[in-house]
Amino acid sequence: MAEELKDKIYEYLSSHYYLNLATVSPQGRPMAHTMAYVSENAVTYLATNKNTRKVQNIMHNPYVAYTVDEDDPDWFNMQALQVEGKASIITGENELREVGEIMVAKFPVAADMPPDSDIIMIKIEPEVIYYLDYSIKFGHREQVNL
């Protein structure tokens, strides 16, 4: 069952485009950031400017959470992911190149963007993922620890 659930999660991540990233400021204030992302299995990658508040927050506290969900008014069909994990900045050239290829495959517009030395790539490695599927039962949630 756990492998089947992981496959559902991987498919859900690969078939969506945006997540809602939660970070905590050095002052302890929660912040939410809408981000385009790519994924490889359960690991997600985000490109952003190195001077953003989210990067400052991650440098101070690498523990993050995010959701990926539908924008559907029918509560009884809701599906979503709630993810808790640890973020890091990718610095290795090989990994950056590989993630860049995944990014261009999912978002072809990225291939036309000019190089920008202020853009960095964030990697989020999940520790726990909750898969919500209210079509099974209102409030239904399954957990996977990674």
TrEMBL record:
Enzyme class: oxidoreductase
Domain annotation Pyridoxamine 5'-phosphate oxidase N-terminal: ranges: 5-132
Recorded superkingdom: Archaea
EC number: 1.-.-.-, 1.4.3.5
SUPFAM superfamilies: FMN-binding split barrel
GO MF term (any one): pyridoxamine phosphate oxidase activity
Keyword annotations from UniProtKB, A to Z: Oxidoreductase
Entries under InterPro entries matching the protein: F420H2_bilvrd_red/Heme_oxyg (IPR052019), Pyridox_Oxase_N (IPR011576), Split_barrel_FMN-bd (IPR012349)
Pfam families linked to this entry: PNPOx_N
Signal peptide: none
PANTHER family: HEME OXYGENASE HI_0854-RELATED (PTHR35176:SF6)
Name this polypeptide is given: Pyridoxamine 5'-phosphate oxidase family protein
Annotated source species: Methanosarcina baikalica
Organism taxonomic ancestry: Archaea, Methanobacteriati, Methanobacteriota, Stenosarchaea group, Methanomicrobia
